[in-house]
């Protein structure tokens, strides 16, 4: 299927940490997810992209950020064992929201920066 310009990313929470990816193309920190296919909903795109990149099956997605043609969802509901598609991401880290707030903007994607700011404001 052809990709649209819509992007869906997911904050996956486990034990008060969040899954952060290190992109293969530029080495920046990012969330799992990516481009939706043409005609695909943001939620369905998020579920598919997370599975393609991590082999995790996410559920109960809650939209927490929407800007431009991008949506960020949050969930703590997922199944499976983490296995990376190394063509997309070279590594992954389970990172606390405190640690996420400490990285430099130049080291992350815009999505990651928005997600970190959201988590910083979250109780």
- Contiguous runs where pLDDT drops below 50 for at least 5 residues: none
The CATH superfamily is known as: Nucleoside Triphosphate Pyrophosphohydrolase
Structural class: alpha+beta
**Biggest sheet, in brief?**
7 strands, mixed
Spatial separation of the terminal alpha carbons: 39 Å
Description of the molecule:
- The structure is a single chain.
- 25% of the residues lie in helices and 42% in strands.
- With 123 residues, it is an alpha+beta fold.
- The chain has one domain: Nucleoside Triphosphate Pyrophosphohydrolase (Alpha-Beta Complex), CATH 3.90.79.
- The strands form two sheets. Strands 1, 2, 3, 4, 6, 7 and 9 form a seven-stranded mixed β-sheet that branches. A two-stranded antiparallel sheet has the order 5-8.
Write the SSE topology.
Elements: E1 3-14, E2 17-23, E3 29-30, E4 33-37, H1 42-54, E5 57-59, E6 62-67, E7 70-75, E8 77-79, E9 89-96, H2 97-102, H3 110-121
Parallel strand pairs: 1-7
Antiparallel strand pairs: 1-2, 1-4, 2-3, 2-9, 5-8, 6-7
Short structural summary:
By secondary structure, the protein is an alpha+beta fold.
Structural features:
alpha+beta, 7-stranded mixed beta sheet, 9 strands, 25% helix
């Amino acid at each position: 299927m052809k990709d649209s310009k819509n992007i869906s990313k997911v904050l996956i929470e486990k034990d008060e940490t969040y899954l952060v990816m290190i992109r293969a193309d530029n080495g920046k920190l990012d969330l799992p997810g990516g481009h939706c296919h043409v005609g695909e909903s943001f939620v369905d795109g998020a579920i598919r992209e997370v599975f393609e990149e991590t082999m995790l099956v996410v559920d109960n997605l809650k939209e927490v950020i929407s800007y431009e043609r991008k949506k960020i969802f949050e969930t703590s509901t997922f199944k499976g064992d983490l296995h990376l598609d190394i063509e997309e991401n070279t590594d992954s880290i389970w990172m606390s929201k405190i640690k996420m707030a400490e990285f430099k903007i130049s080291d992350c994607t815009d999505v990651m920066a928005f997600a970190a700011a959201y988590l910083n404001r979250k109780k």
